[in-house]
């Protein structure tokens, strides 16, 4: 295990963090709690970065679909040792049977964009002691919500586990975070129980400090994982019952 993870106080003392999608619901929390936990510096990356009061925060322009912008971000942030791939889109009207252009747009951000940033920062993490890559996935990676979003998260779940293997040699901690509904602008259109962004981020940073490789950040997702080994003939009818709300 990389010595960066050998912490018992779960602080981020001395860490340099980069958060993509830093203006969003979870993104804001990732920035705020990194500061509270003592991070040395936080790059708050966003398509339109905003000014920040804390001098430890460095706003960074980063559209994850723009390879030039990703290369510039790597050049501007050579000291990152905790990369948080948080940016994603979840457009209204998204359907797995919808227009191919729209499905490609979702994959361009959620899968290729995330993977582009991940791959671009591999040498940076390696040069900074191995470090940590935290990929924000979704319980939708495991449940058959009929959307391009869910498919993109399933693809990124697979890629996250592959990156972990790929990066064994440089000692990078690669974490997948899965969670159901979180109270952020993305989920505003669904009136269902949601956990707070603050609780998800707190569990994420605890996991970083503890050397976790998978974080299941709500009861729903922890319960879901325990069901995955059930027979398909039992599991999918059970799942469809849970998901009626989304396809009604
Ligand atoms: N909310 C939930 O229920 C939930 C559940 C499971 C997983 N998640 C995941 O949690 C993460 C954060 O989502 P959230 O709920 O906080 O949503 P959010 O408030 O919509 O934040 C998403 C952020 O991603 C940014 N973004 C979108 N496209 C981008 C691009 N091409 N380049 C750079 N940034 C881009 C957005 O930036 P702009 O401000 O520029 O649009 C926004 O700030 C996502 O990965 C999401 O899939 C959310």
Question: What do you see in this structure?
Answer:
This protein has about 250 residues and is α/β, with parallel strands linked by helices. The protein has a single domain, classed as Rossmann fold (3-Layer(aba) Sandwich). The protein has 7 helices and 9 strands. It has a 7-stranded parallel sheet with strand order 3-2-1-4-5-6-9, sandwiched between helices. Strand 4, helix 3 and strand 5 form a beta-alpha-beta unit. The radius of gyration is 18 Å and the shape is globular. The model is unreliable at about 1-10 (pLDDT under 50).
Q: How many helices?
A: 7
Ligand identities: NADP nicotinamide-adenine-dinucleotide phosphate
Shape: globular
Q: Structural class of the helices, strands and pairings?
A: alpha/beta
The tally of beta strands, per DSSP, is: 9
Q: How widely separated are the two ends? A: 47 Å
Quote the beta fraction: 5-15%
Fourth-tier CATH superfamily name: NAD(P)-binding Rossmann-like Domain
Instruction: Please name the CATH topology.
Output: Rossmann fold
Estimate the mean pLDDT confidence. Answer: 94
Taking strands numbered 1, 2, ... along the chain, how are they ordered across the largest sheet?
Answer: 3-2-1-4-5-6-9
Q: Mind telling me the C-alpha Rg?
A: 18 Å
Instruction: Report the uncertain regions.
Output: 1-8
How do the SSEs run, as a string of H and E? EHEEHEHEHEEEHEHH
What percentage of residues falls in helices of 4 or more residues? 40-55%
Number of domains: 1
Family: Belongs to the short-chain dehydrogenases/reductases (SDR) family.
GO molecular function, one term: oxidoreductase activity
Pfam families: adh_short (PF00106)
InterPro entries: NAD(P)-bd_dom_sf (IPR036291), SDR_fam (IPR002347)
């Amino acid at each position: 295990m990389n010595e960066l993870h050998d912490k018992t106080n779960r602080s981020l003392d001395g860490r340099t963090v980069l958060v993509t999608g830093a203006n969003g619901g979870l993104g804001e929390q990732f920035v705020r709690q990194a500061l509270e936990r003592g991070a040395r510096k936080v790059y708050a990356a966003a398509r339109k970065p905003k000014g920040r009061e804390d001098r430890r925060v460095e706003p960074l322009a980063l559209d994850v679909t723009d390879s030039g912008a990703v290369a510039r971000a790597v050049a501007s942030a050579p000291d990152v040792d905790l990369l948080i791939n948080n940016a994603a889109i979840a457009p209204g009207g998204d359907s797995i049977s919808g227009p191919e252009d729209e499905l490609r747009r979702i994959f361009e951000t959620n899968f290729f964009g995330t993977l582009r940033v991940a791959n671009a920062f591999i040498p940076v993490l390696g040069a900074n002691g191995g470090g940590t890559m935290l990929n924000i996935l979704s319980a939708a990676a495991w449940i058959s919500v009929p959307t391009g979003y869910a498919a993109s998260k399933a693809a990124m779940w697979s890629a996250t586990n592959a990156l972990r293997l790929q990066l064994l040699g440089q000692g990078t901690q690669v974490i997948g975070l899965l969670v159901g509904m979180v109270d952020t602008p993305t989920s505003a259109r669904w009136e269902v129980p949601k956990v707070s962004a603050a609780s998800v981020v707190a569990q994420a940073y605890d996991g970083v400090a503890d050397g976790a490789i998978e974080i299941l950040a709500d009861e729903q997702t922890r319960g879901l994982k325990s069901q995955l080994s059930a027979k398909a003939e039992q599991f999918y009818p059970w799942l469809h019952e849970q998901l009626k709300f989304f396809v009604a």
